[in-house]
Each structure stands twice: as C-alpha cells, then as structure tokens.
UniProtKB/TrEMBL annotation:
<feature type="domain" description="RNA polymerase sigma factor 70 region 4 type 2">
    <location>
        <begin position="105"/>
        <end position="156"/>
    </location>
</feature>
<dbReference type="InterPro" id="IPR013325">
    <property type="entry name" value="RNA_pol_sigma_r2"/>
</dbReference>
<keyword id="KW-0804">Transcription</keyword>
<dbReference type="InterPro" id="IPR007627">
    <property type="entry name" value="RNA_pol_sigma70_r2"/>
</dbReference>
<dbReference type="InterPro" id="IPR013324">
    <property type="entry name" value="RNA_pol_sigma_r3/r4-like"/>
</dbReference>
<feature type="domain" description="RNA polymerase sigma-70 region 2">
    <location>
        <begin position="15"/>
        <end position="79"/>
    </location>
</feature>
<dbReference type="Pfam" id="PF08281">
    <property type="entry name" value="Sigma70_r4_2"/>
</dbReference>
<protein>
    <recommendedName>
        <fullName>RNA polymerase sigma factor</fullName>
    </recommendedName>
</protein>
<keyword id="KW-0731">Sigma factor</keyword>
<dbReference type="Pfam" id="PF04542">
    <property type="entry name" value="Sigma70_r2"/>
</dbReference>
<dbReference type="InterPro" id="IPR014284">
    <property type="entry name" value="RNA_pol_sigma-70_dom"/>
</dbReference>
<dbReference type="InterPro" id="IPR039425">
    <property type="entry name" value="RNA_pol_sigma-70-like"/>
</dbReference>
<dbReference type="InterPro" id="IPR013249">
    <property type="entry name" value="RNA_pol_sigma70_r4_t2"/>
</dbReference>
<dbReference type="InterPro" id="IPR036388">
    <property type="entry name" value="WH-like_DNA-bd_sf"/>
</dbReference>
<keyword id="KW-0805">Transcription regulation</keyword>
<keyword id="KW-0238">DNA-binding</keyword>
<dbReference type="InterPro" id="IPR014325">
    <property type="entry name" value="RNA_pol_sigma-E_actinobac"/>
</dbReference>
Amino acid sequence: MAGSGKVLDFEEYVRNRQDALLRSARRLVPDPIDAQDLLQTALVRTYGRWDGIADKSLADAYLRRVMINTRTEWWRARKLDEVPTEQLPDARVEDGTEQHADRALLMDILGVLAPKQRSVVVLRHWEQMSTEETAEALGMSTGTVKSTLHRALARLRQELESRDLDFHALERGERGQERCAA
C-alpha cells in the first residue's frame, strides 16, 4: 500500500503547486502549449523519483531543474532543424495592449540567448532567486552564474538596441514614402 501513498503525496503536491510550476515552465519556453508539455514531461520524469526526494520542500527546485534539462534536450534536438535568417519574425501581439506587446518582445528576445543563459536570466530575474540559489538549481558555481548573467544581459541589451534602430529606420522610411505620395 506504500505505492498508493506515493501517488497521493505526488497528486497532492501537483494540485497545490501546478499554477506556480506552470508559470516557471512558461518562463522557460515562449509558447503556452509547449510550456504545458514541458511541465507534463517534467512531472512524469519526477514521479518516478518522487520517493528519492527526501526533503519535499525542495521539490519545486527539483522540478525546475528537470524542466530546464528537458527544455535543453528539446532545444538541442530542434537546433539542427533551424535555419538562420537575416530577419527575425515579428513578435506576436494578440490583444494589442502595451504590456502584452512588451512581454511578447521580451519572450522573443529571450530566444536569442543560449539555453544556459536563458535559464540563468529566468531564475535570477523572473523567479527572483539569489545568485547562490540559481547556482544550486543549475548545478554551477556562483561565479559562472554571475558571468553568464552578465553576458546574457549584454546580449539582450544589444538585441534591444538593434531592434530599436531597425524600428526607427523603418519608421523614417514610411514617412519618406508618405511625403513622396503627397
């Protein structure tokens, strides 16, 4: 009957933490459907090792690590199918609000980072973990977390500046066409 206790404990944990876990998954992958798939895959992988987690208060950290590893596996499997292009696709904006547009842009820009960099940025800034907590969750030293975060933020700044310049150039081009038409 010990097996049924394991199932009940795990089911209760998932019921209580599913919203927070889905938010973590959503921060790791831009598509909501992929985030649900990521969480489900992580839960399946964690269920088999549930009894091995002695301190259940660390279950969230364990699951985040499983999600990060799974996302990295997916990224490695897909990266061979990707074809580099000169232009990135436009960010999807469904409801037109500025907040949603900013979030879509941020999610799009996070895509330029390597998975390790994206993981560090997500854990440090979205999950608001300390450098030490991030290092522990990702299995790296605090110095590696700091240097990876520094490089990732520099890359994000560079990407934002590049997109801002592209936007202003496009805007000037449209104004010039309007003047010629008048």
